[in-house]
Amino acid sequence: MAGDGTVVGLPRTSGALVPLRREEWEPESELHDPRLSDVDEWGRSENIRALVRRLYDPIYRQWFRAEWDGLEKIPTEGGALIVANHAGAIPSDAPVIMHGIESELGRPVYGMADHFFKGLPLVGTMWSRGGGVAAHPENAYRLLREQGQLALVFPEGTKGPGKLYSERYRLRRFGRGGFVEIAMRAGVPVVPIAVVGAEESMPILWKSGALARILGVPYVPLTANMLMFGPLGLLAYFPSKFRLKVLDPVTFDVPPDQERYSRSRVMDHAEQIRLDLQETIYEMLRQRRSIWFG
Amino acid sequence: MGKRVLITGLGSFWGGRMAQALEADPDVEHIIGLDVTEPQVPLERTEYVRADQSYSILSRIVKATQVDTIVHTFLVVDSTRVSGRALHETNVIGTMNLLAAAGAEESSVRHIIVKSSALVYGSSREDPAWFRESMTRVHPPRTRVERSLTEVEDYLRDFADDNPHVVVTLLRFTNVLGTDIVTPISQALEHRVAPAILGFDPLMQFVEEDDVIRCLKFVFDRQLPGVYNVAGDGRIPWSEVAHICEARVVPALPPVLTGTVADTLAALRVMDLPPELLDLLRYGRGVDNRKLKQAGFRYTYTSAGAVECFARARRLRRTIGESRPAYRYERDVEQFFRRSPAVVHRHEG
Questions:
Q1: What mean pLDDT is reported for chain B?
Q2: Would you list the DSSP string of A122-156?
Q3: Mean pLDDT, range B217-236, rounded to an integer
Q4: A35 at the B interface (CB within 8 A)?
Q5: Contact at 8 Å (CB) between A110 and A150?
C-alpha cells in the first residue's frame, strides 16, 4: 500500500504502468517509443484516472461513505478476477469498487463492461480512459494471465442494474458462468465482493421495454431520482450508505490455458459463487438498520 | 542455383521496394516483376513484364521462367485508389490466376508470400483489444476492399490445403506509416488539421514502411509458413497520433451519419476518407504481433515510432517540398542495361 490513504498515485514509469508480472513471452521492448501521453494499450490513462480519483473521492467518502470489510483478501499482486453484484439504473457500484481498491491498495482495477459503452461518443472514450475495458474473453485473459492485473466484472450483466426496486438485492442469473471459465483459463482466483447500498442510490421504479428496443439500449428506466430531480436525476444519486464485503477468494483446481473446461463444472462453480454472494448480501441486510446510515 | 522470384505489383510502392531488397541479395538469381504500370523506382536487374489487371498471362510467365517463389504485393488495400470493379479484378481474379499458375501440374513454385492487410479483421464495437491470427472478424465484411481481401484469404487457405508441398505465407499488415508511403491515413495527417469523429479517440496501431520490407524479406529468407500479423508494438490514441504529427484534431465528422458527411467531404474534394477508415476512426484496431516475433522477427519501430518517422518526413516536405528524386522508367534504357553485352554485370560470376 502506497501513499497516505487519500488519493494515491499509482506507480508509473515513462507514463505507463509497471506491469506487475512480466511473462517470458513478452520480452521488454528496447525500441525507442516516442509516446506523448500515458494512455496504455487498453485506453486507460493513469493521469486521467488520478484526476477522476481526485474528483470522485468526496463522493466515495462523504456521499456514499463507503466502508470495506475484508479488503486484505484482495491480492496485492498477480491477476485476480473480482466479481460483484450489480445495481442502480446507472450502476454506482463499479466506480465505488474501482476507487476503493485503487486508493486503498494502490493498484489499478480494469472495469469490464458491455461493449455497448464503446459505441457511445464521448462516454465511451472517457470510460476507456478511466479504466474501462470491453468485456471480451480475450481482453480478460490478456489482463489477468499475461499482465497479472485486477479485472472487475459483473456476472449479472445488464440484468442486474436493469431490475426493478421491488427485486432489489436478489441476484440475477450469472450468465453462463463465463467469468469462471475465464478465471480457470487465466489461472487466477475469483474474488467475490458483496455490495450493499447501490440498489438504493438509483432505484428503478418502472422501465420501458419497447423504448429500449427502439433506442437499442439495454433498458430505459424511470428512476426515483428522476421523479425527485427531473432529468438531473440521471446524474444525482441518493446518498445511501455503501458497505462492501470481500469474500474469500475462490481458486479452481484445474490447469490453466485449456481450450475448454467442463461445462457442468463451470456452472457449478458459478452457481456456488452466486449463492455465497447472495447469502452474504442477505446477512449484511440483516445487520443493516438504515439505508442511509448503514 | 539461386532463387528465382516473381513479384506481382512491381509498379506499386511495395513491389518496387521489395525488388530492390531482393536485388541486394546475392542468393536471388532472377527477379521478374509484373504490373500494369511501370516500376516507380530504379531497378538494376529486375525484369519488368507488363501484365493486364487480372494477371491472365501469369501462368505463361511462371511456366517460362520456372520461378520458385512468388511475392504477391499487388493486393489493393486502399479503396480510394481504384474503382470497385478494378479492386475485385485485381485482388480476387488476380489472386485466382496467380494460384492457378502456382498450383498447375509440374509447377516450379515452392513458396508464395501474400501481402494482405489487417483490414480482414474489420473494426467494430464488439472487437477484442487485440486480434490474434487464429481469430476471425466479428461481423461479415461490409466494404469492398474488406470483402475482396477476405475472399483472397479463403482462396489462399484452400490452396495451402491442396498444395502441401508449397510454403504459403500470409502476412496481415496493419496501417503503414513512414517516410514515403502515401495512404488515406497519411493524407489525413498531412495537413495542420486531422479529421476525427466527434466523441471518439480510438487506439491505432502502425507499422513502419521499412519494417514491412524487412518482414517480407524475413519470411522470404526463412520460408516461414502460416499466417502472421505485422504491426508495431503498442496502440496509441488518434489524438496522440495527430499530436506527434503536430496536427490539431478537428472532430469534423459527426458520430451519426458519419458516412454521409464523409461522402460529402469527398465530393467537395476536402478529404477522401474511405469507409474502412471511418470504422477505424471510431473503434480503432489492435493486432497481436507476437507470433512473428516468436518466429524471430525484430521490429525496428514501435507504433509511435512509425508515426514519428512520418512526422519527420512531413516536416522536411513542408520545408523543401516533395523530396523523392523523380524516376521515370524508360524501356530502351532499361533494356540496354539488362541486355547489352557492353554492360559489365558485377553480380554474375
A1: 90
A2: THHHHHHHTTEEE--HHHHHIIIIIS--EEEE-TT
A3: 96
A4: yes
A5: yes
pLDDT tens track for B256-266? 999 899 888 88
Mean pLDDT of chain A: 88
Can you give the pTM of this predicted structure? 0.88
Q: How far is A218 from chain B (nearest CA, A)?
A: 15
The rounded distance, in Å, linking the Cα atoms of A151 and A93 is 14
Q: Between chains, do B300 and A31 touch, taking CB under 8 Å as contact? A: yes
- Give me the long-range contacts of B320-329 (CB less than 8 A, separation at least 24): B324/B180, B327/B40, B327/B41, B327/B42, B329/B38, B329/B39, B329/B40, B329/B48
**CB crowding B193-208: b at 16 or more within 10 Å, else e:** ebbbbebbbbbbbbbb
B76: pLDDT strictly greater than 50: yes
Rounded distance between C-alpha atoms, residue B243 and residue B251, angstroms: 14
Instruction: Name beta bridge partners: B65.
Output: none
A-B contacts at Cβ under 8 angstroms: 89
Q: Closest partner residue to B305 among A31, A124, A125, by Cβ? A: A31
Nearest residue to A141 via CA among A131, A128, A151, A127: A151
Cα(A60)–Cα(A244) distance, integer angstroms: 12
Q: How far apart are CA A44 and CA A16, in angstroms?
A: 10
How far apart CA A212 and CA B331 sit, in angstroms, is: 67
The pLDDT value recorded for residue B324 is 64
Q: Which residues pair with B155 in a beta bridge?
A: none
At A68 the three-state DSSP class reads: strand
Residue A119 belongs to what H/E stretch? none
Cell numbers at A167, concatenated: 427485486
The answer to whether B291 contacts chain A (CB < 8 Å) is no
Q: Where are the alpha helices (DSSP H) in chain A?
A: 46-58, 93-105, 123-129, 137-141, 178-186, 198-201, 209-215, 224-229, 263-287
